Amino acid sequence: MRSLLTRRVFRLIVHNELHICMRCWVPPTIHCIQSQRTPTLLNIPNRTLFGFSRKRKRQPKPINYEPGLEQMLELKARLSRGERTPTPEKLAQAFVNFFQSKQKNRSLVEDIQAHSALMTFEHLQRIQNDAEGFWLTSEELRVALGALRLSQDCHSKSHNKLARLLFGELQRRREAATDNEEELVPLEKDLVPFIRVLSHSGDAVYARDVIEKYWVNETRLGASLPWSSVLRGLTWERRGEEIQRTLEIMEKCNVPFDNKSHQVVIVYYAQVQGDMEKTKKWFQHPIAFGQSPTEYTNKAVLQLCIKEKEFEWGDTIFKSMLERDPEDEKSWNIIFQWAAAKGKSVDEIERMMQIMVRQGEEKGIELRPNINAINGLIELANARNDPYTAERYVALGQRWGFHPNARTYLLQMEYRIKVGDLGGARTAYAHLQGEEIPEDEDLPLINKLLVALAADKRQNYNAIMGLVEDLSERKARFEADTVGALAQVHLERGEMDDLVDLLNTHAFQYGNEQRTAIRDILLQQCLDPATPTPQAWETYNVLRQTFTETDVPTRTTLMKNFFNRNRSDMATHVFGHMRQQQIKSLRPNVSTYAQCLSGIARAGDIESLQTVHNMIKLDSGIELNTQLYNALMLAYSQCGKSGHALTYWYDIVHSREGPSYASIQIALRACEKAPFGEGVAQDIWGKLKKFEIEVTREIYAAYVGAFAGHNLFDKCVKLVDDAEKEVGNKPDALLLGTFYNATPGPTNKQKVKDWAWKAYPQAYEDLLKLGTYTVVRLDDNGEEQDYLPKETFFEIGAIGRDVEV
């Protein structure tokens, strides 16, 4: 006899249920009591049919917000929606935490982050109740001003405005302070970072005016630091006249012209302007404190002399350098580079090194080249795009027994990436990992290597992920181009979970332009016809969740894309997500509603139509007008609800705006299948005649179609014959095509075709030529080949059917 108990127990196991014996003397509640060793509900095994536990679904990484940034972004979102904002104490703490983190890590403040911090600071100023301070101490304001770093090419208005507000508030507090208060700190402590931000954000002229206002004549070393920032900002803005004027003001104010200011001026005239005369003039200008030109200044002059073939003047410079300090290593390194620039071969450079060593031995001093000399030569070869010579310099260093340092490997990576030797670049990177790199100088090149590996046709996925893991372990900054390239890799491989993790970790650190560039990669993937629809939908979901700031035109393009894929349900969801946006500027307008309804009309999806129509009814910001009534009428008529569609015609007629030509054409099309539609068509035609409205050929064709839809053949024939009298045009392909399309049933259609061929042979031939088409595709050799046989309009039937609402 089979055991029913065994079967019952197995069913309970399959359904993950507990077995309780009804004859057991222990009360059932005892079975539910958990002891210390009893697992919690989260640890109960989840069995499948075969007794194996299911693998838990992978959870995406949380968004990587910097300290305080999430709260400031929340304030921005709530202000845009008109909601209650967080408490000022919470916002002030978020502001402080954010800039303390930036100061600690010495990282850049991105544009979107500066904008959020600016909104937070302005909000705190607006709602302040205490005139002496608004939940932020003076020291916390100084931390924010000092940490407000940005890249050279940012030109951010948010950085500029926030810096002005912070400095202005500090000045207000300084003026209101007494001698015993902590606000009495040197002005320079606030002035230097303020000038730096102004100069870097495209406002160097105003920064100069601020220095003039607060400047106290000083001649000590380092006093020219804010003036150097102004000069550097003017060079980025390429304002040569203002640079000249600033130098005159510096001389008037007795500002020491040190080697840093000298470097800024020389680099501008030598590298940016390429002006040899002014480069000579300022290179010979005396430098304060007896300082010599910096190494970077000498490099700039060297490059200009090579470019302009000014070797005679260059020779005098380097001879003077050698005479001034013949035993200086840096002087010899530049001499080697100058000789190489003048055309000396690698072998000749090596003989110069031997002479250098021999002269040192004769003088009894240790004078030998080192790896820094080799690095300078490799850098020169890189600047001349000569990787072959660069490799020979590397071999030269090996012959002399120089151990490559971090700079050597970085230069190797640079020229190998340029020539596409990604394997060699990876090898150099592998050696680089064993070296100590100051201030993360390798990050720009590693980012370039990642972009190159991602773009390589023979993509090495393991190598890419190895680099990503190394950077992630270092908590290094990924450039926006790198994130975009990695996003493309994940998209091509269909790794949506990895894509979400990547974007959550990095995408919220960038400015608006950088985020848009990354978003466009996902957008292109969605819009590519070769992308399978399920993958396009997954990509869209990642896009909408990560880039919530996506504007209405972009979302509308995505909606149309899914309509083109014959997925009106997905397109309606895209529209619904747009409709759910809390920010008013990101919500659909009347035109967007009309475009969505037009797509639904082409798809004939009544369920999507009802969904969107309900959205219209609930949207208080949408006012029905003729365009929207047209879209509703077209959508309902194409979804088999022609009778209901005509109710919107009457709404249009009685509205203040009144019907348009598109309204008339759509209404006549609805009459094709509406009950007693021929009577409505005659009524519309009567009003057109009564009010002497000009009838276009499209409207007249739609009028013929209204009768053809009810199989009134003789009436249609008469209307076609009267076309020239009514609209001034002879029967053409549009009129015959509409007559044919609207006629129901294959037998009746054949009757129309036979009549048209005999009555209007020319229009009939034009119709055939107009409708003939061939669907082609590319074969393996890239040649076009027929994919579908040629078909005529009579088999396809689409002419004159699309209407712009």
Description:
By secondary structure, this protein is mainly α. It is built from 42 helices and two strands. Among the domains are: 4-43, no CATH class; 478-550. A two-stranded antiparallel ribbon has the order 1-2. The protein is elongated and about 120 Å long. The model is unreliable at 1-5, 20-53, 773-780 and 784-791 (pLDDT under 50).
Topology:
Layout (H helix, E strand, L loop, with lengths): L3 H11 L13 H5 L36 H13 L6 H18 L5 H16 L11 H10 L9 H20 L10 H14 L3 H11 L10 H13 L2 H13 L6 H14 L3 H8 L11 H14 L2 H14 L4 H13 L4 H18 L7 H13 L3 H13 L6 H13 L3 H11 L10 H13 L5 H13 L6 H14 L2 H11 L5 H16 L5 H14 L5 H13 L3 H12 L10 H14 L2 H13 L7 H13 L3 H12 L7 H10 L6 H14 L6 H12 L4 H9 L1 H5 L5 H10 L3 H14 L1 H11 L4 E3 L5 E3 L6 H4 L9
Antiparallel strand pairs: 1-2
Helix pairs in contact: 3-4, 3-5, 4-5, 4-6, 5-7, 6-7, 6-8, 7-8, 8-9, 8-10, 9-10, 10-11, 10-12, 12-13, 12-14, 14-16, 15-16, 16-18, 18-19, 18-20, 19-20, 20-21, 20-22, 21-22, 22-23, 22-24, 24-25, 24-26, 25-27, 26-27, 28-29, 28-30, 29-30, 29-31, 30-31, 30-32, 32-33, 32-34, 33-34, 34-35, ...
Shape: elongated
Mean pLDDT: 84
Strand content: under 5%
Strand order of the largest sheet: 1-2
How far do the termini sit from each other?
Answer: 76 Å
Uncertain spans: 1-5, 20-53, 773-780, 784-791
- Our Rg estimate from Cα atoms comes to 38 Å
Annotation, overall tally of beta strands: 2
- Helix proportion: 55-70%
Structural class: mainly alpha
Pfam families: PPR (PF01535)
